[in-house]
Amino acid sequence: MQGSSPSRALLGFHLSGPQASDGRHIIPFYGHTFNKDTWVPDADIAYFNVGGGMGYIPTESWTSSFLGHDDNFGPNYCVPRLYAKPENVEYVVELLPAGYRFDGIAAEAIALQLLYSLDRKLASYKGNPWMRRLAEITDQNVQRVVLRSIAVSRDTYLASLREMNDWDGNSERTRMASILQKLLPDSLWVVEISSPQLFPANERKLGEIVMNPFIAVDPITGSNYDRFLFSRLPEKYLFLNKFDAGRPSFVDFPSGLKSHTPLLRI
To answer: Comparing C-alpha atoms, which of 110, 133, 131, 109 is closest to residue 121?
Structure first.
């Protein structure tokens, strides 16, 4: 499974050991393996970050190894995610499409902020069981939502939307994909939203937050709503409407997709 930044990156490190010279090496990574049975997501919160307020579970928690090429050994090697010693690492460079102004980690942080801005909206959609599930895992006392960031073209995203079926066989019957074709930029950050049960077991999601990757993050104001394009959730598309007393409000449109759907494949 590809996606979930950083899945395409360069790792630069210096050599170590009794006979190591002052040498350095670079390995390119282009994907990763996926371990459904990993202990990390539960243990990190239950044992090693108790009360830490992590906010969400990054999908790298289910990553076992990165797939890389080493010109000394050959292609398609599995490099365990936590193998490289931090003191040896010189740098990590995430590789992004041309023009992107912020990386996948920032995309997930922005998506998290936007998702928690939707708390009133989520709580109001009591008729959909999957929307209720999303409201539960984004509760400030729970914070168990799973986020997966993917840099993807508009056409690829919309093609997946048109072909998508939810768990009950519903498809996107509205005209939304045609409308979005005219409104969206050529490339996107898509941050998929899932739960700790759906993501590893079924490789499925509850929806996504879609952002404009060409607007740089503002480190001074910290306002990220200019980057927000829309969110697709069970039965609903949500667009930013206005700010009321400094708090954003959203307007919704219907979606034919009423339950969880497959993750993007790129």
So the answer is: 131
| Confidence band, pLDDT 50/70/90 cuts, at residue 3 | very low
Longest dimension (CA), the chain: 66
Sign of the CA dihedral running 236, 238, 242, 248: positive
For the cut 60, the answer to whether the pLDDT of residue 176 exceeds it is yes
Nearest to 59 by CA among 95, 32, 85: 32
Q: DSSP characters for 218-238?
A: -TTT---TTTEEEEEETTEEE
Cβ-Cβ contacts under 8 Å for 141 (sequence gap 6 or more): none
Distance of CA 20 to the CA centre of its chain: 38
Peptide bond preceding 6 in cis form (omega within 30 of 0): yes
Residue from 67, 66, 88 nearest 12 by CA: 88
Tell me the pTM: 0.90
CB-based contacts of 90: which residues, under 8 Å, 6+ apart?
12, 13, 14, 24
pLDDT category of residue 142 using cuts at 50, 70 and 90: confident
Nearest CA to 140 out of 173, 118, 168, 166 is that of: 118
Token pair in block for residue 104? 């996948």
Phi first, then psi: give them for residue 179, nearest 5 degrees. Answer: -65, -45
Residue 188 tokens read as 């996107």
Give the CA-trace dihedral at 74, 75, 79, 85, to 10 degrees: 50
Fill in the amino acid letter for 177: A
